[in-house]
Structure formats: C-alpha cells, structure tokens
C-alpha cells in the first residue's frame, strides 16, 4: 500500500456489560473517527444503543460519528450455507460503499463486535470480502465472550477435569447429537430438549446486561422452563441472544 490508507478496528466489546470492555479496546475506541453499525430494525435498536453507550462511556473526546447501515435480508429457505454466503456478499457491498464514502482516505473506522470477533461472528469473514472491493487495513481487538460470561455467572469451570469441550450450534446439536460436554450457540429451536432428561444444562440469555436470565439444572427439570422463559423474553424484547453449556 502506498500513500494514505484507511484503518478499520474490529473491537470485541464483551457480551453486554460495559465493564467487559478491555483497556486495549478503550485505546482503539478513542482512536476511532467513524463507527459502523448494522441497523436491524426497530426490534433490535437497543443493540445499536448498547454500542453507543460503550462509546459514550469510554471515549474521552466525543468527536466521533456513528454510521448505521441497512442490513440486507438473508434468505430463510433453501441451502443454508449458500444463503449465508450470499448474505455475506451483500453485506460486503454495503460495508465497502460505507467505508469508501464515509471514511477519509487516511481515516480510522471501527466495527464493534459482541463478545469476541473470532467466535460465531461474521465481521472478519465479511471484511475479507470487503478487502476485494476497497483498500484498507484492519486489526482485531479481542473481547470477553458469552461463553466466558456464562460460566462466570454460573460459577462453574468450562470443562470437566481433563475433558474437552465442543463449541457448536443448535443446528449441529440436532444433527449430530450430544457426545460430550458442549457449549451451544445460535439455537433458536431449543435443541437441548432433544437431549436425555438427565443431561445437565447451564443456560443464560442477555448475558452481562440488566435483562440477564440464568437457569441451571437437568434438561428434565428445567428444559420446559427455559423454553417458556426464552419465548417470553424474545416477545418482550423483539430479539434474544442466549447460549448454554451441556454435560451428559
């Protein structure tokens, strides 16, 4: 790269509690001129509001801007991987245009990622696609994940002694079943209900926020309670982010 070049920070901001923001993240926040955020509609407007609150709390000189980007729709039928790939390409078009038009040639922008950008987050994959459309450099600031917050809130270790832990999705849990300890994310269908009743579960939603919900027990004891609690919370807020740990 020769001459001025744009810089993008991908900043992990934790799972919802502003206290999760690290010192490294604060440094990057204060170096940023433009924050890009996806507008996912009124139902999820508080997700943008939480990002704004992080900036308000930690940025010393409020001379930054927020640019909200319309989130392209994702196909909900047909091949799942193909739908995600097409959605990423559509997002990359939106992001590339925004970076090119909203950020000076030597400007500094940022995307604020829930938890850590490396764990079930599409930001890094999409930025790779954006790099084929517009020139910029980027770095990644790690953050506290929902997995860490879940185990901290329940006051449990992530793994049993000498045992591995699988991090997976509800879709994969339904397909492959439970063969050992597993953290399950992105599960809109409460796939834990298909596990044996004696399976232990530690569940959490809105982790790190004032709306945080926690339930633990066996699937037989608390599974139906989690299903009902989750449905009520989603109806109340218009969205939900939850995760859980299973042990056979």
| CATH top-level class of the largest domain | Alpha Beta
CATH topology of the largest domain: Cobalt-precorrin-4 Transmethylase, domain 1
Structural class: alpha/beta
Cα-based radius of gyration, to the nearest Å: 19 Å
Q: Report the helical percentage.
A: 25-40%
How many strand elements? 10
Question: How many domains is the backbone divided into?
Answer: 2
Largest sheet: 5 strands, parallel
SSE string: EHEHEHEHEHEHEEEHE
How are the secondary structure elements laid out?
Elements: E1 6-12, H1 23-30, E2 34-39, H2 45-58, E3 65-70, H3 80-102, E4 108-113, H4 123-130, E5 136-141, H5 146-154, E6 166-169, H6 170-176, E7 182-185, E8 200-205, E9 213-218, H7 219-237, E10 242-247
Helix pairs in contact: 3-4
Task: Give a written overview of the molecule.
The structure is a single chain. The chain has 248 residues and is α/β, with parallel strands linked by helices. It folds into two domains: 7-141, Cobalt-precorrin-4 Transmethylase, domain 1 (3-Layer(aba) Sandwich), CATH 3.40.1010.10; 146-247, Tetrapyrrole methylase, C-terminal domain (Methyltransferase, Cobalt-precorrin-4 Transmethylase, Domain 2, 2-Layer Sandwich), CATH 3.30.950.10. Helix content is 35%, strand content 23%. It contains seven helices and ten strands. The chain has a five-stranded parallel beta sheet with strand order 3-2-4-1-5, with helices on both faces. α3 (80-102) crosses α4 (123-130).
